[in-house]
């Protein structure tokens, strides 16, 4: 128990530092913004209580908001992603169900399952984040393009990080 708390705590700190110090400074013509801190929500064990996922998501998003100067946008988007996580997991549950205590990773459930899972959560997060950011529908198609491009880049980073975790 203590080992898993330390493990996920260290991963969370590293992902937040990566996001704040490196990835928040990457922006390609305003359309591509990779947000890999969402991995914090993705890799938590399947039996993590929903209330804990919401708290972790909110705190992670709030830290990103405080460092980026965005008033609650990341906190609300990450909170929504954490809220949607149990529903997404139920929709894509393996035939045998989830192994108690196993982390939701590519190593545990395979590439295809993880890609579907990560894509759903990332799209939910990015849709909420970018629509909250513009807060209007006049730039609807531009916002959809930003969601798609940023999601593709974020998924690329997520898969690279997950592949690295799998190899270890």
Give the DSSP E fraction (strand runs of 2 or more residues).
under 5%
Number of strands: 0
Number of domains: 1
Shape category: globular
Summary, kept brief:
This protein is mostly helical.
Structure notes:
It is a single chain. With 168 residues, the chain is mainly α. The chain has one domain. 70% of the residues lie in helices and 0% in strands. Helix 1 packs parallel to helix 3, helix 4 (73-91) packs antiparallel against helix 6 (111-134) and helix 6 packs antiparallel against helix 7 (140-167). The chain starts with a helix and ends with a helix.
Quick tags:
single chain, 168 residues, mainly alpha, 7 helices, 0% strand
Blueprint of the fold:
Layout: H1 2-21, H2 39-42, H3 50-68, H4 73-91, H5 106-109, H6 111-134, H7 140-167
